[in-house]
Hints:
Layout: E1 2-11, E2 21-30, E3 43-52, E4 55-65, E5 71-72, H1 78-94
Antiparallel strand pairs: 1-2, 2-3, 3-4, 4-5
Amino acid sequence: xxxxxxxxxxxxxxxxxxxxxxxxxxxxxxxxxxxxxxxxxxxxxxxxxxxxxxxxxxxxxxxxxxxxxxxxxxxxxxxxxxxxxxxxxxxxxxx
Length: 95
Protein backbone atom coordinates (compact mmCIF):
# COMPACT_ATOMS: atom_id res chain seq x y z
CA UNK A 1 0.00 0.00 0.00
CA UNK A 2 1.51 3.31 -1.10
CA UNK A 3 0.06 6.62 0.10
CA UNK A 4 -0.05 9.03 -2.83
CA UNK A 5 -2.18 11.94 -1.59
CA UNK A 6 -4.12 13.09 1.46
CA UNK A 7 -6.23 15.84 2.96
CA UNK A 8 -7.05 16.53 6.60
CA UNK A 9 -9.65 18.56 8.46
CA UNK A 10 -10.47 18.97 12.13
CA UNK A 11 -13.93 17.70 13.02
CA UNK A 12 -16.00 19.80 15.40
CA UNK A 13 -18.25 18.03 17.91
CA UNK A 14 -21.28 20.33 18.18
CA UNK A 15 -22.60 18.39 21.16
CA UNK A 16 -19.45 18.62 23.25
CA UNK A 17 -19.90 14.99 24.28
CA UNK A 18 -16.65 13.69 22.82
CA UNK A 19 -13.41 14.42 24.62
CA UNK A 20 -10.28 15.40 22.76
CA UNK A 21 -9.97 16.41 19.13
CA UNK A 22 -11.01 14.41 16.05
CA UNK A 23 -9.50 14.71 12.60
CA UNK A 24 -10.74 13.32 9.33
CA UNK A 25 -8.06 12.19 6.93
CA UNK A 26 -8.88 11.28 3.36
CA UNK A 27 -5.92 9.22 2.28
CA UNK A 28 -5.57 8.07 -1.30
CA UNK A 29 -3.55 4.93 -1.82
CA UNK A 30 -2.24 2.72 -4.56
CA UNK A 31 -2.23 -1.04 -4.14
CA UNK A 32 -0.23 -3.58 -6.12
CA UNK A 33 -2.08 -4.98 -9.12
CA UNK A 34 -2.12 -8.42 -7.46
CA UNK A 35 -3.88 -7.07 -4.37
CA UNK A 36 -7.66 -7.61 -4.19
CA UNK A 37 -8.03 -3.91 -3.27
CA UNK A 38 -6.32 -2.77 -6.47
CA UNK A 39 -8.45 -0.33 -8.45
CA UNK A 40 -7.22 1.35 -11.61
CA UNK A 41 -8.94 4.63 -10.69
CA UNK A 42 -7.64 4.57 -7.13
CA UNK A 43 -8.75 3.71 -3.64
CA UNK A 44 -9.38 6.06 -0.76
CA UNK A 45 -9.40 5.54 2.95
CA UNK A 46 -11.41 7.79 5.26
CA UNK A 47 -9.74 7.79 8.66
CA UNK A 48 -11.02 9.32 11.87
CA UNK A 49 -8.02 9.99 14.08
CA UNK A 50 -8.62 10.97 17.70
CA UNK A 51 -6.26 12.82 20.02
CA UNK A 52 -7.15 12.92 23.72
CA UNK A 53 -4.79 14.01 26.51
CA UNK A 54 -1.84 13.91 24.12
CA UNK A 55 -2.51 10.35 23.00
CA UNK A 56 -3.49 9.72 19.38
CA UNK A 57 -5.26 6.69 17.96
CA UNK A 58 -7.00 5.59 14.81
CA UNK A 59 -10.67 5.65 15.88
CA UNK A 60 -12.19 4.29 12.66
CA UNK A 61 -11.63 3.90 8.95
CA UNK A 62 -13.34 2.72 5.81
CA UNK A 63 -12.17 2.22 2.26
CA UNK A 64 -13.90 3.71 -0.74
CA UNK A 65 -13.66 3.73 -4.51
CA UNK A 66 -12.04 7.02 -5.44
CA UNK A 67 -14.06 7.43 -8.65
CA UNK A 68 -17.51 6.80 -7.16
CA UNK A 69 -17.01 7.37 -3.39
CA UNK A 70 -18.75 3.98 -2.89
CA UNK A 71 -17.71 2.31 0.38
CA UNK A 72 -15.76 -0.92 -0.05
CA UNK A 73 -16.42 -3.75 2.39
CA UNK A 74 -12.81 -4.68 3.13
CA UNK A 75 -10.60 -4.60 6.21
CA UNK A 76 -6.96 -3.66 6.17
CA UNK A 77 -4.24 -5.86 7.61
CA UNK A 78 -2.76 -4.95 11.00
CA UNK A 79 0.46 -3.62 9.47
CA UNK A 80 -1.55 -1.39 7.10
CA UNK A 81 -3.60 -0.02 10.00
CA UNK A 82 -0.37 0.70 11.88
CA UNK A 83 0.98 2.45 8.75
CA UNK A 84 -2.14 4.66 8.62
CA UNK A 85 -1.91 5.53 12.32
CA UNK A 86 1.76 6.46 11.96
CA UNK A 87 0.99 8.56 8.88
CA UNK A 88 -1.75 10.49 10.70
CA UNK A 89 0.43 11.06 13.76
CA UNK A 90 3.31 12.29 11.61
CA UNK A 91 1.14 14.73 9.65
CA UNK A 92 -0.51 16.12 12.78
CA UNK A 93 2.92 16.92 14.19
CA UNK A 94 3.71 18.91 11.03
CA UNK A 95 0.66 21.17 11.56
